[in-house]
Amino acid sequence: MANTADIRNGLCIEFNNDLFVVIEFQHVKPGKGAAFVRTKLKSLTNGKVLQNTFPSGTKINIQRVERRPYQYLYKEGATYFFMHEETYEQITMEEELINAPQFLKDGQRVEIMFHADTETPLSCELPSFVVLEVTYSEPGVKGDTATNTLKPAKVETGASINIPLFVNTGDKIKVDTRTGDYSERVKE
Q1: DSSP secondary-structure letter at 146?
Q2: pLDDT at position 39 over 90
Q3: Taking residues 31-40, what's their average pLDDT?
Q4: Eight-state DSSP code of residue 107
Q5: More confident of the two residues 142 and 58
Q6: Segment among 6-10, 144-148, 168-172 with least mean pLDDT
Q7: Domains of the chain with CATH codes
Q8: In degrees rounded to 5, what are phi and psi of residue 5?
Q9: Which of 43, 47, 81, 121 is the most exposed place for a label (fewest CB within 10 A)?
Q10: Which residues lie across from 98 on neighbouring strands?
Q11: Which residues are bridge partners to 83 per DSSP?
């Protein structure tokens, strides 16, 4: 069993009968009193972020997680179907376990995190950026590019995002899946 000296970013621990990943940590040694570790933890089961302070030397239970490559197949109701890229084994996941389900398109490569001991899927992460085609947007007015104005648009997955005025229907754009924002137009 490990202790607080082993805490680092990305470490998966069991805390309050749930699995958490360490997002941030800081070892603090005040002038008076005992040292402690201030952490920010993200739940792998429901995505909630909480802050916790561990007294120095506290025992922590490290959990092993694995990231595996999968390919998105299709959606049925609120259930998403994925296929392992090497074994062709198929699994299903609920929408709340996927970080940006609105940007999933058929054949999209993703990484699914599994709890190594129980083989249960914990979360599904899309790449940081995906390339999508704009299926509908209002035409931009010629000469109206002096300001950084955005217009609403629909992309091929059905998601709505705001794009600059110079992007038109049929253009391919790069979208940041972490924020859902337009990043750049992609030249073919």
Answers
A1: S
A2: yes
A3: 92
A4: T
A5: 58
A6: 144-148
A7: 2-62 (2.30.30.30), 65-125 (2.40.50.140), 129-186 (2.40.50.140)
A8: -70, -20
A9: 47
A10: 124
A11: 71, 90
Largest CA distance in the chain: 66
Residue 134 buriedness (CB in 10 A; 0-12 / 13-18 / 19+): buried
Question: Per the structure block, which two tokens stand in for 8?
Answer: 């680092």
b/e map 45-59, b = 16+ CB within 10 Å: eeeeeeeeebeeeee
- The arithmetic mean of pLDDT across residues 132-149, rounded, is 77
Strands (E), the chain: 2-3, 12-15, 18-28, 36-43, 49-55, 59-62, 65-76, 79-84, 90-94, 109-115, 120-125, 129-137, 150-155, 160-164, 172-176, 181-186
18-28, strands of its sheet edge to edge? 2-3, 59-62, 12-15, 18-28, 36-43, 49-55
DSSP state letter for 173: E
- Residue 50 in tokens: 């909480």
CB 110 within 8 A of CB 72: yes
Distance CA 161, CA 182 (A): 7
Partners of 66 in beta bridges: 114
Paired strand residues for 77: none
Give yes or no for residue 45 having a pLDDT over 90: no
Reply yes or no on whether the pLDDT at 130 is more than 70: yes
3-state secondary structure of 165: coil
* 134-138 average pLDDT score: 90
